UniProtKB/TrEMBL annotation:
Keyword field: Transferase
Protein name, as recorded: Acetyltransferase (GNAT) domain-containing protein
Keyword flag NADP: no
InterPro entries per record: Acyl_CoA_acyltransferase, GNAT_dom
Alphabetized GO MF terms: acyltransferase activity, transferring groups other than amino-acyl groups
Presence of keyword Transferase: yes
Domain N-acetyltransferase: 3-154
Organism field: Bradyrhizobium erythrophlei
A Pfam family of this chain: Acetyltransf_9
């Protein structure tokens, strides 16, 4: 049986994604995380996979952003909000959704590389799917001004560039 994947406008599809976000990241859990106070950007697109039993099984947010790397401007893609409903995990949905997100970013020729942020328990998941640690510094905007973003670890997926170190300024909210 095939998996049905939709890639929709981020704002327009928030109502579809919202129940999954509330289940995977309930407010009382988020508040206790080291990243619980961070203000996040909204995705431009969402990859959505429907559960065979109905409802949303898996979500991956896609972001497009002009950042600077060592002071030079680059257009890049971002991945965030990767989540699979608890009863749908370990069926390959997140892997498939990530693949669809990579393909979508690859289709935008200007995108030089992709960037995501994750916690240590997910490092192996991304590294086994071709993502590389970025060991440099990440800067991002927050309502109070620019911060050094250290709440989660950055990982890079190479398209035309393969940054591993230096300073990346997200030039906006993180994702
Ligand atoms: C992390 C997360 C998104 C993974 O979602 P998922 O849909 O279960 O991911 P997949 O099924 O693609 O892969 C998960 C594991 O199941 C394995 N798997 C995939 N299909 C499988 C199958 N049919 N049978 C058994 N195992 C399978 C994969 O190999 C993978 O293991 P690996 O990382 O050792 O390779 C999910 O656990 C989640 O939502 N966690 C909470 C939120 C979170 O941490 N999000 C990440 C933010 S960066």
């Amino acid at each position: 049986m095939g998996i049905e994947i939709d890639i929709l406008n981020g704002d327009a599809s928030w109502s579809i994604a919202e129940p999954l976000f509330k289940a995977v990241w309930p407010r009382h859990v988020v508040e206790k995380q080291p990243w619980g106070h961070i203000e996040w950007a909204d995705p431009d697109l969402r990859v959505l996979i429907e559960a065979p039993s109905g409802g949303l099984a898996c979500h991956v947010g896609i972001y497009f952003r002009t950042i600077t790397w060592n002071g030079r401007k680059f257009q890049i893609g971002g991945i965030g909000g990767v989540s699979t409903r608890a009863d749908c995990r370990r069926r390959g949905y997140a892997g498939v959704a990530l693949g669809a997100a990579i393909q979508t970013m690859r289709d935008h020729e200007a995108v030089q590389f992709a960037l995501l942020f994750c916690e240590p328990h997910n490092f192996a998941f991304y590294q086994s799917r071709g993502w590389h640690p970025f060991t440099g510094e990440i800067q991002a905007e927050q309502p109070g001004g620019k911060i050094r973003f250290e709440a989660m670890a950055p990982f890079v997926f190479d398209f035309r560039r393969a940054p591993r170190e230096g300073v990346i300024d997200l030039c906006g909210l993180p994702w």
